[in-house]
Each structure stands twice: as structure tokens, then as C-alpha cells.
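Escalated from tier 1: flavin mononucleotide holo job.
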Amino acid sequence: MDIDVTVKIGKGVLPTPTGAASGTFGYGDEFAGLYDPSKLGAVYTKAISLFPREGNPPPRLTETPSGILNAIGLANVGVEAFIEKKLEFLLKQSFATVVNIAGSSPDEYVRTLCRLSDSGVWGFEINLSCPNVKHGCLAFGTDPHHVENLTALLRKETDKPLIIKLTPNVTDIGTIAEAAEAGGADAVSLINTLLGMAIDVKTARFKLANRTGGLSGPAVKPVGVAAVYNVSRRVKIPVIGMGGIMCADDAVEYLLAGAKAVQIGTGNFITPGLCDSVYDGIVDYMKEKNLSKIDDFASLLQDA
Ligand SMILES: Cc1cc2nc3c(=O)[nH]c(=O)nc-3n(C[C@H](O)[C@H](O)[C@H](O)COP(=O)(O)O)c2cc1C
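Tier 2 regenerated the structure:
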């Protein structure tokens, strides 16, 4: 049986459903040689902002039971250095280059996206959800009006796939997803990290200089799966699922819950070739269950 693993997002097609999540795979080049690019659907870049950002002071990462807390604070090279130094490598690859954009104001998002609109990138993932920037995007991602307005502003500027990345740090993530859809998004991706904190009891100090950080890894997977299940029933646009994917079965769980594609984040830090084995496992599962396309996953889920 022929298996079609491609995924349509707006006017674009991802060659496979597996992607490397923003912030965990650099700009693709850092992992070169450690993965098979032909099995990867997309690299979602580290967040790019209009100007370079140093991010938060260290320590910025700490391990927690079944996860990590990070407060990187959107450290990145800025859009000009990204175009000059990082883009050439990415554009030579068979996978889609999805630029994750962060900003402190709607104007910054629009200017960054416009700077990249003719650069040959496949599409954009808009990070409305980073919990680590004090005056930044958390406000956008938690307010449906802001989300709809910003999505509509960005939609006017590009025909390329526009993916809005959602924060789980809200009362009802479905409402935010509906706002992104109303603003003209081609897809939503979820979940970003969950707001968390860790304190060293010996020193009575915060483990992160920023005090709070974003929780990711296996600990967040049930939150992500539930969010994908909820959102995929609230919007018609495709849902891209992530959070705690550490093996192929985790990715299949997201696809059964309603995702059309997945992203692997924290798992890359433990197993740099994880995207390959997740892809292989998805294909094996499709063969075993006689699924010919990614859309078939959703109908496999039993009611009880
Ligand atoms: C160190 C680190 C940096 C991250 N940076 C970004 C980022 O720049 N933009 C973004 O949208 N998400 C960022 N994320 C969130 C991930 O892309 C992903 O949504 C989250 O970690 C959940 O997936 P996971 O459990 O597989 O890691 C970052 C996560 C980690 C661990």
C-alpha cells in the first residue's frame, strides 16, 4: 500500500509530519550529521526577533523530574544575522524552513516577517506564547482579541503558511485557537512551555535567574495531548502537536488526538537523532494499521 506522509498547511506542503521544535534544534546546522534530513518535515527555527537579543542572565536551564525548565528569554541572532549566516544552510535542505518569530510589539512581528517574506523560507510560526519575556508576547498569546488582530496583521503581509503557536498558560486554549483561525492562520501549533518555578532548598535560591521558566519534556505530554484533542475539535485548520515527545508512540498519541503533524523539542537534547526514529515509527504504525495518509489517524481514535 502506498503511504502518503505529506501534510498540507495553507498553500504549503510539509514533506513529512515530523519537525524539530523551535529553540531545541538551533538553526538546523548545529545538528547537521546527527539526523537524516530526508525524514524531517520541517525545522522550526529558534525564535527570531527584529534585533539580536541576549536573553536572560544564567542560569537559564534546570532539570526537573521528567522535564526541564528554561528561561532562555528568546536569545537569538536577530533577523539580519539570521539571513546572512543561517539561512543558506537551511534553504539547501529538503525539509521546510519555518521561521519562528517573536516580538515585543505587533510592529516588531510585522517588520520581522516582512523582512523574511522574500527570503525563500517555507513559512512562519508566530510565537505568541513565550512565558519568559517580561513585557513581551505573553500578553498577545493569552488574549483572544490580540491574537486575532496580530494574526490578521501578519496575514495581510504573507501568502506563505502562517502558523500561530499557542501557550497552554490560559484558561481555555480552544478560544485562543479560534481567534487565530478567525485572524486567518493556516494552522496552530501547541503547546509551548508551561509556566514553572524551581527553588534550591539548600541555598534557598531560585534555580533560574529569571525565577520562573517554561516547563517542557515528558512531564508536559498529557497536557499537550489534551490541548491538541480540545483544539482540533474547535478549529478547522490543521493542528501541529508537541510537548514531551520522546519516542514514536508519543507522536502517534498526538496524531490520534487530532494533530496533523508533530514537533520534537526537549527529546532532541537527549537523543539527537530522535526525529528520525519518530518518523520511522509513524510510518511503521501506518503500515500496521493500514493507514494511507496522515488524516486517517484521527478516525482511528475510539470513543471510549
Ligand atoms: C531550551 C528551549 C528553548 C525554546 N525556545 C523556543 C522559542 O524560541 N520559540 C518557541 O516558540 N518555543 C520555544 N521553546 C518551546 C518548544 O518549541 C516546545 O514548544 C516546548 O518545549 C514543548 O515541547 P517539548 O516538550 O518537546 O520540548 C523552547 C523550548 C526549550 C526547551
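Residues 274-288 form the longest helix (15 residues).
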